Amino acid sequence: MLQDHDRSQHSRLSRRMLLKGSLAAGALFGLYGVAGCAPAPAQPASQPSAPAGTPAPTLAAMPTATPAATPTSQAASSSVTTLRTAHGLSYQGRESLDPHARSSFRAVNDYIYDRLTRYATNGMDQELALGWEPNKTATEWVFTLRKDVKFHDGTPFTARDVIYSYQRIGDPKLRSSLALYTGVIDLAAMTAIDDYTVRFPLKRPHADFPFVAPPAVPIIAKDSGESVVKTGNGTGSFKLKTFAPEGKTVLVANDAYWGEKAKLAEIELVPIPDGNARANALLAGQVDFIDQISRSQAALVERNSNYVYQVVTGPLSFSYFLVMRPDAPPFNDVRVRKAMKLVVDRALMLQTTVQGDGIIGNDTLIYPGNPVALKEAQPFDIKQAKALLAEAGYANGLDVTLTTNSGIDIFSSIAVTYKEMAAAAGINVTIKPQPGDSYYNEIAKAPFFIDFSASPSAPVTFDMSYRPGGPFNDSQWDNKEVVGLLDKAFAELDDAKRADIYRDLQRLIKNEGCDIVLFFAGIGRAFQKSVKGLDPNHPIPDWKRVFIDRKG
């Protein structure tokens, strides 16, 4: 079992590995990914599996959005069918075609490999899975697979590939960061009921299991773990043509794809690690699309009518929050934690730090647009904050140190804004900047610090952020009532009852928890106006629906 310090460092490293390059790559949690950090559309237990091609209904479905119009045929678009984009070279040339590796080249791998399901603006799309059903206790799930799928080398896809992929990720020798999502599965006991039906036995009840691993685990062919790093052999809508992380990587449309065929013929990816350089490359016409751009970079784009700037706010938006360690004074007193939350003018914080491009947070990490999100705002109340501090023994004020990452501009803005707001309640905040390369080691020892996260779904966020020892439990908060509500929710198969439990859980977290969740920020991206088909409500481009129209 991990000791406190080791567990804390594990938490930081896990979050860093999962977020590193994730949105630029387009795959946090299959996320789309986290980022894509979001897990899958569970079907109501009382209903049969959905027919092929029909998105499965789900309690935790995200708000529905209408993507930009796409052409009905290749002829409807321009003859220009190659899209050029940039990636951040997150692993300095060590990017891997192995989608299970920590150094997975997600900007490429998200499109050459499929998962059982994939996140969408309306919740979840089926991908290699057609449907799924739990047993009566939610300790077992059975997934039905597509029969019309082939890997890029022509090998048919079957249940054995799913079992191999999941068990490979769970192998401790691989040290895959995706093992975080397969931990609830009894991997050794997975079985193929037939070639197109897989049984997932779980270690404990989980009524929202389809939101956990299915959208996070890319599927590779059985026994291809050694070769996939060279071949990129997946079942996705694009195939690998050339692979050069430090040069030009090229993907081509998979004409044999089982689903909607890509409208682009090729995608070219070039490495541009620096954000300003990416923006300059776009404005110089060297690339067609960039993401994760800053507001200052966006200002340059907005002045040019040949380009479009979008802020995409949705389920995979990053949450930004302050973390208080409950094992360190003064944050071991819940009254102090409440006071630290009450001093924040949330609307002003959002406007000051991200110019309003986001959604106010209310001290839980559940995206506010999720149907199970608690709709109770955290008040801004300096008088009550002072009263709570006085009750806790700090009537004459409180001194705290806030550790922040000097390499992230938004962190610095958050720190300064919070310092000014807290001063009104007699809280004196000393800001302690730390270099980015050592930040996640430093905050393992810090009692008060800033962090950010992208979470793909409520079930994943609850389990990983609020369960003791969870990889995203930054504060290391250990609350028995929280654990009891988690277990109760995951064992409840009735959607409405489970949603009520989730809201009770959020109410407890909001009132007593250790995170001051300030806002969920939109993801900025920019592209040439000839690029069409991007969903304005989803930060991860669905490249098979994107096309280029020089006439538009």
Give keywords.
21 strands, Dipeptide-binding Protein, domain 3, disordered N terminus, D-Maltodextrin-Binding Protein, domain 2, 4-stranded antiparallel sheet, 552 residues, alpha+beta, 2 domains
CATH class of the largest domain: Alpha Beta
Total number of distinct structural domains: 2
Quaternary organisation = single chain
**The named CATH superfamily of the largest domain:** Periplasmic binding protein-like II
Taking the alpha carbons of the first and last residues, their distance comes to 59 Å
CATH topology of the largest domain: D-Maltodextrin-Binding Protein, domain 2
What's the alpha carbon Rg, rounded to whole Å?
23 Å
Largest sheet: 4 strands, mixed
Quantity of strands, as a count: 21
Could you characterize what this model shows?
- The protein has helices spanning 4-19, 22-25, 28-31, 106-112, 159-170, 179-182, 228-231, 275-283, 295-302, 334-342, 346-354, 382-391, 409-423, 439-442, 458-466, 480-490, 495-512; strands spanning 82-87, 117-120, 123-126, 129-134, 140-145, 191-194, 197-201, 238-242, 249-253, 266-271, 289-291, 307-312, 318-324, 358-360, 398-405, 427-434, 448-453, 515-521, 523-528, 531-532, 547-548.
- It is α+β, with helices and mostly antiparallel strands.
- It has two domains: 39-65 and 88-270, D-Maltodextrin-Binding Protein, domain 2 (3-Layer(aba) Sandwich), CATH 3.40.190.10; 318-521, Dipeptide-binding Protein, Domain 3 (Dipeptide-binding Protein, domain 3), CATH 3.10.105.
- The chain has a four-stranded mixed beta sheet with strand order 1-10-9-8, covered by helices on one side. A four-stranded antiparallel beta sheet has the order 4-5-7-6, covered by helices on one side.
- Helix 10 (334-342) runs antiparallel to helix 12 (382-391), helix 15 (458-466) packs antiparallel against helix 16 and helix 16 (480-490) runs antiparallel to helix 17 (495-512).
- The longest helix is centred in the C-terminal third of the chain and has 18 residues, at 495-512.
- The radius of gyration is 23 Å and the shape is globular.
- Residues 1-14 and 16-79 have low confidence and may be disordered.
